[in-house]
Amino acid sequence: MRLPAAAGVVCLSLLVAGCGTERVREAGASVASPSAPSAASEDPEARHDRLFPGLTTRCAGLAASPSPRASTSTEALSPEARKYAENHAFKQQRRLGPRAECRGRAHADRIGGGVGGARTEAELRAALEKLGYAADDVQTYGSGAGLGFAVFVPGAGPCVSGRVGPPLSVEVHGPYAEGGCVEPRGGH
Q1: 6: Cα separation from own chain's centroid
Q2: Taking each helix axis from N to C terminus, what angle separates 98-114 and 121-130, rounded to the nearest 10 degrees?
């Protein structure tokens, strides 16, 4: 009756010895080299710089810390104003540091120069993707003079939003408290 126990030990040693010694991949798939960082482990700013190499020198000497912002304290406000501020807290935007704000302005200039001829959501989305912004980072909405966009700049942190117009308008801001680059509609 010792045979089943010995077979279990042999099977276990084969499993342990074989762990991680061979990779199986589908035809045509590539295996990442150990020296190349994966997108998940890559520093966000390094990823940004790799994706948009022409925009890196403009903001190189700026600090990454958040810029000071006016106090949002509601203590000195009337009770009605405090309630209004509380009800609209979902529209608060994350602070941008000087470097993120500078990079956002560089992207705003780039986007403003590349989307002016778009007249439909499909044309606008295609123009933004042609500029190198991933489909997951781009939102388009509206039509006519209300045709708009919101782009999350990967690795740099800011959002670039605007309307194609006329007139064209582009602004840089932090992501909203509720998440994303499009101003949320409605609160609690």
Answers
A1: 55
A2: 120
Determine phi and psi for 72, rounding to 5 degrees.
-105, 20
pLDDT at 22: 35
How far is it, in rounded angstroms, from Cα 50 to Cα 66?
23
Cα Rg, the chain, nearest whole Å:
25
Question: What's the pLDDT score for residue 113?
Answer: 93
Q: Strand 159-163 relative to strand 148-152: parallel, antiparallel, unpaired?
A: antiparallel
Tell me the pLDDT band of 12, cut-offs 50, 70 and 90.
Answer: very low
Separation of CA 75 from chain center: 34
Instruction: Find the helix or strand (DSSP H, E) in which 149 lies.
Output: strand 148-152
Q: Enter the pTM of the model.
A: 0.66
